[in-house]
Amino acid sequence: MIETDALQVDRWRELRERIDAAPAADRVELLTERANWTRRSVVRMIDAARAGHIGGDFSVTDILTVLFNSVLRIDPSRPEWQDRDRFILSKGHCAAALYSTLAWSGYFSPDALSTFMAPMSELNGHPNRRKVPGVETNTGPLGHGLPVGVGAALAARLAGGPERVYVVLGDGEMQEGSNWEALMSAAHYELDNLFITIDRNRLQQGARTEDTNGLDPLPERLAAFGWEVREIDGHDYLALIEAYRPSESGRPVAVVANTIKGKGVSFIEDRVEWHHKVPTEEQVELALKELA
Amino acid sequence: MSREMYDNRTAFADELIALAETDDRIVAVCNDSVGSSNLTGFRDRFPDRLINVGIAEQNMVGVGAGLADRGLIPFVCAAGPFLTGRSLEQIKADVAYSGHNVILCGMSPGMAYGELGPTHHSVEDLSWLRALPDIDIVVPADREQTRRAVRDAVDHPRPTYIRVGRHKVPDVTTESTPWERGKMQMLRDGGDVTLIGTGTLVSRALEAAERLGDEGVHARVLNASWIAPFDEDAVVRAACETRGVVVAEEANVAGGLGAAVASVIAQLPRNRVPVRILGLREFAPTGSTDFLLEHFGLTGEGYANAAREVLADA
Known about the structure:
The complex is a heterodimer. Chain A is of the alpha/beta class. Chain A has one domain: Thiamin diphosphate (ThDP)-binding fold, Pyr/PP domains (Rossmann fold, 3-Layer(aba) Sandwich), CATH 3.40.50. Chain A is built from ten helices and five strands. Chain A has helices at 6-21, 24-49, 54-71, 95-104, 145-159, 177-188, 209-212, 218-224, 237-243, 281-290, and strands spanning 86-89, 165-170, 194-200, 228-233, 253-258. Chain B is α/β, with parallel strands linked by helices. Chain B folds into two domains: 8-164, Rossmann fold (3-Layer(aba) Sandwich), CATH 3.40.50; 185-313, Rossmann fold (3-Layer(aba) Sandwich), CATH 3.40.50.920. Chain B has a seven-stranded mixed β-sheet, sandwiched between helices. In chain B, strands 7-9-8-11-12 form a five-stranded mixed β-sheet, sandwiched between helices. In chain B, helix 3 packs parallel to helix 5 and helix 8 (201-214) packs across helix 12 (300-313). Chain B is globular. The interface between A and B is medium-sized, with 35 and 31 residues.
């Protein structure tokens, strides 16, 4: 298990206080800065590892940035704190974006990011809770995060805990039957402490979701399953923050975040081949320039 | 041998309720199997702590992992075939690999569902779960061991699969029988041949030992209560101290207890002994549990015949 970085936690705390206190325009600027920082880390990690899932990393980065810097009740210096909000990245293949977010929050030193997927590194291609603080459950095979999130939300209710549970899913992952089992279950138990965010970038590994096994109309389907649905632009920080307001119906909340796969780098955006393509040396330079 | 026979699910439920009275970390999760998992009493006593997710086994195991994440001790109960088969990837990723302390309870395992046929038989569970690191596989042989398995899971929660038998078996152990994680118990010592059994087969191994004793053959009987961690030492001792080993299991022989035993013996530099493995090699035909156990030679007589064969080979 890698260790907490106390200094980085202090920096994270300071930034978070600034974000909380800032007027809307400044808040957006601070979050944009932090998100681009994360994306640049992801580019360097994938460049060094010569592997990764850059398209999905970039579509989910703004969601992760908002959650960790403005929404989650967490203390990265105490990753085992009983009452912490639980965060689960069900689309575990976007581990680089998660690791980068966790490291810049102080769960571990950002220096460790350079070991992404290196032999014996704690930072496997998919996150491992036994090695990386801040990871609640091991994901990678799709359709696993939400059932675990349902259990965590039930546990909070049973234990009288104040925590909320946040699960981030890929949209392609909504083709897994286990997610629909869990959606039914969460609605049945009226888990208003459970928030899912679907990274709706409309691309999966091989093609567009709608050309593969169509999900539309996704918000309506989620509503029909008994969820309170909030459809937003997943790159709009203020809309994201607003989307995580408490449940208004006593039912679990599904945030359908419309995103662009590869968001932030022009030649990666919305192109199916960038699901797990690795940028060339020249493309790395170009990407870092666009994310500066 | 005329002895009282018991359904281990009763001991399981009684112990679980007794422990839950004083330990509110204990919760039960099931898949519309309140009755068949014998959880009616638990539900009546602790309605809030019985989570019935309906017929949705993948979600059921994931929910168990999420409950364990907060330090609760979930007993996830479902008929063995659906628990292990339908949600094998959840058991791998959410429980074993994640290290979530979920207690998976495979109810009515083996061929307990007799005439309902192979879709409802859980004879692959031992092989499937043996392929996973970091999960205990416990097969209690009787009521006492079922109670102990439940107590252990609460005292030392770790990723665990427990086979909770439905087919009635006699008591073969007492409170004074040793019970240690990863250890077989020697229920009877003997120097000629070793009979290894698990679950339903243990009383049948003892019955065979009686028969062989009448013929002047001294059989050692080992109860493999743990399939994982596996007691390699007991197998090595059997191979060194007796002249043959017979293993029987109410399971497929591909990758189960017999395979574990054979793998240890095959890798010994010397002292190799002949081994016979009794179990299933095909989908079962139609028949009651007793009929099917007889059909596959999983009986005292089956053990005794195999013992005579290995001794002839030795």
